[in-house]
């Protein structure tokens, strides 16, 4: 994961408002990252709507409660999403966007945090005997990330994320740049025996995000993404 010292603050026009979308926000690093983003927005005088994605509703509700303490006035949307069940991901994504739109909150820029992931079976490749098990880990660690990133980028371009009831977004402002964050691992660049599924998935994710960064690099994009 990369860090940034960029300030998410008050622009010349109004207080910046971010939509922060976190996969696997029910516990662990996903919860910690959501709280860290909320604290950072609070420190910078910015506002936020958080979309928490995952399967464990209770865990995500607990994260939402913690977000209230980190960023007073934060709007939280808890949306069930099983990233290992690809056929249902787009429907869950659209449901989250409907909630965002009906919240009536303006959004200037969005941050997608691709956090969910799984170690999968910890065995040498020669002992991986279940195709279903291999496929399910690759689906969660790689395919779902490509799919959700595509949904995010298409929704941005369609104007379904930024904008909102209380005024136009800060389009074409460097402050209004959206971001995609990949939670990676040392396993993306170093081989660890018995972690083939995890290492391969993290390496693939790193390259996916490098390609997306190149694709979205045009300085005149209507909805810039970094
Ligand atoms: N912990 C570490 O030391 C470490 C180090 C480097 C990188 N990472 C990376 O950090 C990320 C989070 O790791 P963690 O340690 O916080 O793991 P964790 O505590 O096991 O949490 C995993 C998260 O992924 C979500 N998830 C799992 N299966 C899912 C599914 N089918 N659909 C949607 N969400 C799903 C879980 O949410 P639900 O159960 O609610 O679905 C949970 O919030 C992973 O990408 C991991 O590879 C972790």
Task: Describe the protein's architecture and organization.
With 226 residues, the protein is of the alpha/beta class. It has helices spanning 28-43, 57-70, 86-102, 131-157, 196-215, and strands at residues 17-23, 47-54, 75-80, 109-114, 179-182. The protein has a five-stranded parallel β-sheet, with helices on both faces. The longest helix is centred in the middle third of the chain and has 27 residues, at 131-157. Residues 1-5 and 166-173 have low confidence and may be disordered. It binds NADP nicotinamide-adenine-dinucleotide phosphate (NAP).
Please give the radius of gyration in angstroms: 18 Å
- Oligomeric state as shown: single chain
Number of strands: 5
Enumerate the spans where pLDDT stays under 50 for 5 or more consecutive residues. 1-5, 166-173
**Structural class estimated from helices and strands:** alpha/beta
The largest sheet has its strands arranged as: 3-2-1-4-5
Helix content: 40-55%
Q: How far is the N terminus from the C terminus?
A: 13 Å
The number of distinct helices, counting runs of at least 4 residues, comes to: 5
* Small molecules (ligands, ions, cofactors) in the structure: NADP nicotinamide-adenine-dinucleotide phosphate
Give helix and strand order, one letter per element, not per position: EHEHEHEHEH
The largest β sheet comes out as: 5 strands, parallel
As a percent range, the share of strand residues is: 5-15%
Shape: globular
Estimate the mean pLDDT confidence. 91
